[in-house]
Amino acid sequence: xxxxxxxxxxxxxxxxxxxxxxxxxxxxxxxxxxxxxxxxxxxxxxxxxxxxxxxxxxxxxxxxxxxxxxxxxxxxxxxxxxxxxxxxxxxxxxx
Length: 95
Hints:
This protein is α+β, with helices and mostly antiparallel strands. The protein has one domain. The chain is about 40% helix and about 15% strand. It contains four helices and two strands. The protein has a two-stranded antiparallel sheet with strand order 1-2.
């Protein structure tokens, strides 16, 4: 065992503190949806997190990010003005 298991109440507190955003990673699940469905999904989330803590492994699906270019000024034809943002799965926000 790598780290101590977490319980449901800790997960609920962490999820309730998330900013409800509509952006999502490759899994198409946003933090707003996670906050709204936490009562129904808390056991599943906690089980996945505890498996990761107990084994020391994080599933490859949680390591994937959707990388999106965002331009920072009005001229969208210049590549130099773009910056990249990485959108991770909402479950990665629960830590």
